[in-house]
Design a protein that fits this description.
Low-confidence stretches: 12-28, 148-156
Shape: globular
CATH topology of the domain at 36-148: Aminopeptidase
Radius of gyration: 23 Å
CATH superfamily of the domain at 36-148: Zn peptidases
Structural class: alpha+beta
CATH class of the domain at 36-148: Alpha Beta
Number of helices: 5
Amino acid sequence: MLENTLMSYLRGTIFVALIPFFCIFVHCAEEKPLTPLESTSAEKLTTYDEMISFLNELHQRTQNFTIETFAASVEGRNIPLLRFSESGSSASDRRDKLTVLIFAQQHGNEPSGKEAAIQLARDIAMGDFVDFLQNIDLLLCQWRGFKPKPPDIDRAGSARAARCVS
């Protein structure tokens, strides 16, 4: 009887002792950095400078994508284009791969697209959803120059929008 109790205790002790090692091997993925929006618990939208800083830090940390300047805003801010590919750097030369282009915050008063794109970029760069990169190259463009507040829209809003990219 004592022998069975002792063996049961030892099995439980060994199991509990192995939990930290199991957790290390199973959860070896690096913890994801919080986006600027997440770091404020969604109290404040991400500014242009915060976005650029976050994307640059993410790129340095992972090297799983490239950042290029797609265009410049009227204010002279670079509009970044992120390229995600199976190779981790530039678009592949495979003709059987589809290239997908996503524009985020195409309209200045729609910031949720920008915030979602920052989270998507972080998740892909950190290793989530990468299986699809075998079949596509993803281009993610932050379209607007990101003013902290939505731009004033006049009656000729389309004319103002046409001046967005110089």
